[in-house]
Amino acid sequence: MDDTTTSGKGKGGPWARRTIVAGLIATPVALVAGCSSSGSSGSSDKSGSGGSSAAPVSKAAITTTPANGAKSAVFTQPVKVAVSNGTLSSVTLTGSDGKQVAGELAADKLSWTSTGRLSSGTGYTLAAVGTDSDQVQATKSVSFRTGAPEKTFIGYFTPDNGTTVGVGMPVSINFNKAVTDKAAVQKAITVTASPAVEIVGHWFSSTRLDFRPETYWAAGTKVTLTLALKDVEGSSGVYGTQAKSISFTVGRSQTSVADLSAKTLTVTRDGKVTQTYPITGGSPEHTTWAGKMVISEKFLQTRMDSTTVGLGGEYDIKDVPHAQRLTTSGTFIHGNYWASTSVFGSENTSHGCVAMHDTKGAGDSSTPAAKFYNSSITGDVVEVVNSGDKTVDPANGLNGWNLDWASWKAGSAV
Predict the structure, then answer these.
(1) Whose CA is closest to 29, among 75, 62, 1, 71?
(2) Is 353 a catalytic residue?
(3) Where is the L,D-TPase catalytic domain (predicted)?
(4) Which of 11, 132, 136, 219 would be a feasible disulfide site paired with 253, CB 3.0-4.6 Å?
(5) Catalytic status, residue 35
(6) CATH code given to domain 254-397
(7) Fold of the domain built from segment(s) 151-251
(8) CATH number at 6-145
(9) Same fold: 151-251 with 254-397
(10) Which of 35, 202, 322, 334 is catalytic?
């Protein structure tokens, strides 16, 4: 540690004493009354023309942790200042952003400890003033930089910044490391809406946290997600790195009901039924999950391989048109060009997906599948009823709407 101190130079006659300013309000070193420039210790007049006396040297010696010039100070540990042969008059700790870090002076005025949180990878300057028993001041100026944490985590969020989404789109965050201090992490994440509405977080697992209101968003709502995770300890020794805000807009209100008994898809936009399409759903051997499912991805064409959903080699279609994902596990609402047109509206024959008539190549915009695809955006809700199967797991996709409000709130850590 650098224990070097500099003395103040007295005014008036030799060894004139200072008057200490009452209180402990931080006083910048450059403004200490009557001080000479840092490091000056006075000098004698060698010309013989009257002579002058050297400045008094304070007996107070100030030390700091971390020391001046430290390059990787531990940001989780407090900054400490101590004085011997005197007392501390003031201490200020300032970050590179110009903001002061709070601290506490001991009752005996012999030490000071920071109480505000430091940031990793950040430069700081510290200015301390001490006074000895002769009321001579000593000053200490220290600069240091905090290091970066060795282990970090980040959250991958949905939806993306600047997007327009449907009324059912939750804010979903998936962390790349397991979170054990869920409360600390959740407190560092805020989701707000305009017009305002209560929004609550729900932990589906140690790596997934979703936010939503009690009912679907109102059309036109502006939603802002703020991640203040930098230096938040998500688990022992693992710290967040993100400090950012993103926003998205809720578009028009569109929800659809796939009734697998009637074999129809009824589309409602802004409170009015706009279209009814004939569909086919899961067969009795491969029923479709029931419940509210949010469109999370859209593909003009995509490959569907039964081996990826545990159905062996029953199918492998490389160009399924107008496919929109409803669950992580592989449930889609999509176009179907390989089945007879007589199937739609009359039979449930699929392996669990909901399908509408389409053409190969996804080039015909007049088909039911194309029309529904073109009218949909991610975040729209498709509710499946009368499927003969259980309600989809709320964690399977963006489908937390299948939890009632009390159950949703019970999954919050704050």
Answers:
(1) 62
(2) yes
(3) 254-385
(4) 219
(5) no
(6) 2.40.440.10
(7) Immunoglobulin-like (2.60.40)
(8) 2.60.40.3780
(9) no
(10) 334
**Sequential pLDDT tens for the chain (414 residues):** 344 333 333 333 333 333 333 333 333 333 333 323 333 333 333 344 445 568 899 999 999 999 999 999 999 999 999 999 999 999 999 999 999 999 999 999 999 999 999 999 999 999 999 999 999 999 999 999 999 999 999 999 999 999 999 999 999 999 999 999 999 999 999 999 999 999 999 999 999 999 999 999 999 999 999 999 999 999 999 999 999 999 999 999 999 999 999 999 999 999 999 999 999 999 999 999 999 999 999 999 999 988 877 777 777 899 999 999 999 999 999 999 999 999 999 999 999 999 999 999 999 999 999 999 999 999 999 999 999 999 999 999 999 999 999 999 999 999
Inter-CA distances, 41 with 8, 91, 361, Å: 8, 23, 87
The one-letter code for the residue type at 116 is G
Amino acid at 71: K
Q: Which two tokens stand for residue 85?
A: 């042969």
Whether 386 contacts 262, CB under 8 Å: yes
Domain layout of the chain by residue ranges: 6-145, 151-251, 254-397
Q: What is the DSSP string of 80-131?
A: EEEEESSEEEEEEEEETTSPBPPEEE-TTSSEEEE-SPP-TT-EEEEEEEEE
Which residue is catalytic, options 35, 322, 351, 353?
Answer: 353
Contact, 54 vs 41, CB < 8 A? yes
